[in-house]
């Protein structure tokens, strides 16, 4: 899967002493934890809404940024840089979101004598712009979704490109991300209005009305490759994540590895991702997104979509199957350390699934549900990880993304990970606000999901069906593992940990019961 590790002189290594985390919530805690393991001092920053937040208490020092709105706090590069100056920090970790993909901020850090823990501003620009990234993919010989590689000058050009590649097509904002500003166009009659709408939304949302156009892949799988590049030309790929379970371009469940990507396809996508990163002088952690238009079998085609020049929310699933600490590695790479291994050393073990736990009423239009958490029980146990940013008594603010935590389950197989996740969800109790915990039970108990028969439109189709109408059959092996989990839990509470308790139901009987219920 590519990768090159040249010798490095020790003088190139510049240890970091104190790191400011320019973020909040679970990712701020995650970075603080890695810094602590490395013996680095930590500086938190916070808005008025986060005065009582966990990351403020967890850091060695904390500096107020300003009022709650992100535009007056976590997006205020000047105030963040001032906090770095006042605290004597020598580096900034941006986390994800906020300023993490802002090239000007990355360059302002460097100008202020700070190490930005991420790629250079130049690399961010070259690969963070969707059109520039598509041009880079062409130069690197990486297959991409057919369509334009520059912004469309006008409607006539849009009509010409769409005519060449054929409908349906997808209009996208060059400065966009995460699907915002995308417009599907199924016929030429729809193009004029869609083009105008996409351009104005792009201008409003991203400050640039540049729009390009691609062939629409119908029911593809969304596969992304995790990369790690050092500052000496070393770059490796760390396997893929499947992110097809999305709602309105918001990822809901991510998993690693993908159930359909073969080792051969993984190697080809990994080599392409490494080639793209090296072509732009990319360093630190990054993710290359692809679409796979089929079952992911050997020889299957894949298409470059875009690159995310930051650490992503879903990085824990990659950490669990590779055994690596990506945040720790980001910091070590930022210190000038060479990657300690080659591509051949990377191996994947087991299967990991992540559920993003949100404060929202998922049964009523996914309405965000800020408010006070009056009690909280988070699951634990073998193969269960909770990256949480909240606590009982915490007032979930309405100014930010309402993600409370990420629940990740790791197992030896996908079925085992699904069953372990179902058990963990049973143990996830949040009172005082509504959450989407119930949504995951609905997804993970669905037969199509259990058989990995999913694509980027699958969740929307599932949610369009009334709950009673969908009688997905949970494969008996998953029901049995989940039932064994409940049976063990129940017997643990009564003192006898047996799978086949005389008073209770055996795991297989439970499985049958479970099977019969759906
Ligand atoms: C696409 C696509 C199909 N065809 N582009 C969504 C967000 C961004 N990362 C790229 N995305 C997509 N781009 C073409 N030419 C499908 C997706 C996509 C998606 C689209 C609609 C609804 C859910 C989706 C989930 C993942 C990817």
Defining key terms:
518 residues; alpha+beta; Rossmann fold; Dna Ligase, domain 1; D-amino Acid Aminotransferase, Chain A, domain 1; 3 domains; eight-stranded antiparallel sheet; five-stranded parallel sheet; disordered C terminus; binds ligand MV4
Structure description:
- This protein has three domains: 3-124, 3-Layer(aba) Sandwich (Rossmann fold); 146-215, ATP-grasp fold, A domain (Dna Ligase, domain 1), CATH 3.30.1490.20; 221-490, D-amino Acid Aminotransferase, Chain A, domain 1 (2-Layer Sandwich), CATH 3.30.470.20.
- It has 17 helices and 22 strands.
- The protein has an eight-stranded antiparallel beta sheet with strand order 13-12-9-10-11-14-21-19, with helices on both faces. Strands 3-2-1-4-5 form a five-stranded parallel beta sheet.
- The radius of gyration is 23 Å and the shape is globular.
- The protein has helices at 25-37, 54-58, 77-87, 103-111, 121-128, 130-139, 155-165, 191-206, 263-279, 315-322, 326-334, 414-426, 437-444, 447-450, 458-464, 476-494, 507-517, and strands at 18-21, 41-47, 61-66, 91-93, 115-116, 169-173, 183-185, 211-215, 221-229, 235-247, 250-256, 284-292, 302-308, 351-358, 360-361, 367-368, 371-372, 375-377, 384-388, 395-396, 403-411, 429-431.
- The two termini are 42 Å apart.
- The protein is an alpha+beta fold and 518 residues long.
- Helix 4 runs antiparallel to helix 5, helix 12 packs across helix 16 (476-494) and helix 16 (476-494) packs across helix 17 (507-517).
- Residues 145, 170, 178-179, 214-217, 220, 222, 246, 249, 289, 291, 305-306, 456-457 line the site of ligand MV4.
